[in-house]
Specification:
The chain is an alpha+beta fold. The protein is built from 12 helices and 19 strands. The strands form 5 sheets. The chain has an 8-stranded mixed beta sheet. The longest helix is centred in the middle third of the chain and has 32 residues. The N terminus is likely disordered. Bound molecules: phenylalanine (PHE). The site of phenylalanine has 16 residues, from β12 and β13.
């Protein structure tokens, strides 16, 4: 990696007295996360309910204060318009759109079959209210409850979900997902064949499309994407999988046709760039489905990961007292779809209360492209530091530059190796993201690693992150940016014992 010089933007840009304070703070610090032992409040009040805290508590006030905005059901909000468009492709499904975001560890992980060492459980990735309670990280947290309720064969569920994650134009710690599922009750048919026939009939009634679909995958694969042999026949899994894929293909055709129309209406569609819509299916892994896939869509030159899905894990249905049901489930991130439908360039905009943003969307009119109302200058500042000498690991996921990806549908995916979810790494990039967000709120646009270097003689490791400050509403002054950045540097020292360079 190219080593960049950070000095002009970083530590040395700070006044000398502050540099001194920061250096000396290194000496006496404890490893803190969102709260230190003595600043953790005794209870957290979320939507009027008090929750006791403990050593697992890591939800900052900044997140709690945005809890309950329910953007996905706010009239005329682009996320709500997107939700309705997706729901419209699942006629007869019951929509659950008002489930509270505070759930138990059991709902979010155990009930779905997450292993005890799944990285999604760690405090660096998830907001814990206390050891047993958290802010849901995905809408799958409600699957078992809804299956147990057993009120309809098909249902969707849209909600806000929370993840400690990167800061950039397409990641925000709160985003929205829609979960959808369809099951058939095998006990209501005279024979297994009669159930298969019903699934086939339903499949044949699904709308046809002329979409280009790349699907090189077998219906299941012994090692990579197994059939649930104990519970499903090959014919059942194959048919349920085909029904799932066709249903979701129909949904994206509708969405992307609407996006194309909006683009053409705004005069922004570039002829020649207009390639036919393409989707491809990629094998995936989720603890709560098997076989599993992700759908990617080819949109203006990039493969975008749009959703995760699969044949529902039968033990999950058994836990929900529905041993005879068989079916499929999917999870889709609404922001990513809305960004591309409306051409919204920055995920923070969804949270804007600025009329110049909100006035542009109307659910009773055809979709229109968002017209940016301002572009204020970005103020980049670097923070370069030596990691403390520690036997513990540092977790640095090199963040991609902004704008390329959007919140993934797939939190359930095992993307990192298992780790001891109870032990804290010496430094985790998500903790820096949290510090920046807590201090700068929505004026932090992007935080990314620009240098990672290990000294050849001392073996000490140094990292440098670039933090971009930019308000969506106004131009920031140099003084206020410096003040925020000083605080970020100070917290880095205090929380991680890093030595600013
Ligand atoms: N819960 C998964 C996620 O957030 C998405 C998913 C939902 C996958 C349902 C399969 C079935 O990543």
């Amino acid at each position: 990696m190219v080593r960049l010089c950070c000095s002009s933007l970083s530590f040395w840009a700070l006044p000398g007295n502050l540099r001194l304070t920061l250096r000396s703070a290194c000496a006496a610090r404890t490893l803190l996360r969102s709260y230190s032992q003595d600043t953790t409040p005794e209870k957290l009040t979320i939507a009027g309910i008090d929750y006791p805290t403990d050593s697992w508590t890591n939800v900052p006030q900044s997140i709690i204060s945005q809890y309950g905005r329910r953007l996905h059901i706010e009239p005329n909000h682009p996320l709500s318009i997107t939700r309705q468009l997706v729901e419209s492709r699942f006629p007869g499904f019951k929509s659950h759109n008002a489930l509270p975001g505070v759930v138990t560890v059991d709902q979010n992980f155990d009930s779905l079959g997450f292993t005890p060492d799944h990285p999604g459980r760690s405090r660096t990735d998830t907001y814990y209210i206390n050891e047993g309670t958290l802010l849901r990280t995905h809408t799958s947290a409600h699957e078992v409850d809804i299956f147990r309720e057993n009120s309809t064969d098909g249902w969707t569920l849209s909600a806000d979900v929370y993840r400690r994650d990167a800061v950039d134009k397409s990641h925000y710690p709160i985003f929205h997902q829609m979960e959808g599922a369809l099951t058939w009750d095998r006990s209501s048919f005279d024979s297994p064949q009669a159930c298969l026939d019903a699934i086939k009939q339903s499949f044949d009634k699904l709308p046809r499309h002329d979409l280009v679909v790349e699907d090189p995958n077998p219906p299941f694969h012994k090692e990579r994407n197994p059939l649930q042999e104990k519970y499903h026949s090959a014919a059942e899994a194959e048919l349920v999988g085909a029904h799932l894929k066709r249903s979701l293909e129909d949904m994206v055709v509708t969405i992307f046709a609407a996006a194309d129309k909006a683009l053409t209406a705004s005069g922004q569609a570039v002829e020649g760039e207009k390639e036919p819509l393409k989707v491809r299916w990629v094998e995936a892994f989720f603890p709560h489905t098997s076989p599993s896939w992700e759908m990617e869509v080819w949109w203006r030159g990039d493969w975008l990961e749009v959703l995760g899905c699969g044949v529902i894990d039968q033990p999950l249905l058994i836990r929900a007292d529905q041993p005879d049901r068989i079916g499929w489930a999917f999870g889709i991130g609404l922001e990513r779809i809305a960004m591309l439908l409306f051409g919204i360039p920055d995920i923070r905009l969804f949270w804007s209360k600025d009329a110049r943003f909100l006035k542009q969307f109307n659910e009773s009119e055809p979709i229109k492209r968002f017209q940016p109302f301002s572009k204020h200058p970005s103020a980049p500042r670097d923070v370069a530091f030596w990691l403390p000498k520690s036997s513990k690991e540092a977790i640095v996921a090199e963040t991609s530059s902004s704008g390329t990806s959007a919140p993934s549908s797939a939190g359930g995916q095992q993307t990192e190796p298992p780790r001891d979810v109870k032990s804290e790494p010496a430094f985790h990039e998500n903790d820096l993201m949290e510090i920046a967000r807590t201090i700068a709120g929505d004026t932090v646009e992007d935080v990314r690693l620009i240098d990672d270097f290990t000294h050849p003689k001392t073996s000490r490791r140094s990292l440098c992150y670039r933090v971009e400050y930019r308000s969506l509403e106004r131009t920031l002054t140099t003084e206020e940016v410096n003040a925020m950045h000083e605080k970020v540097c100070g917290e880095m020292v205090e929380k991680f014992g890093v030595e600013i360079r």
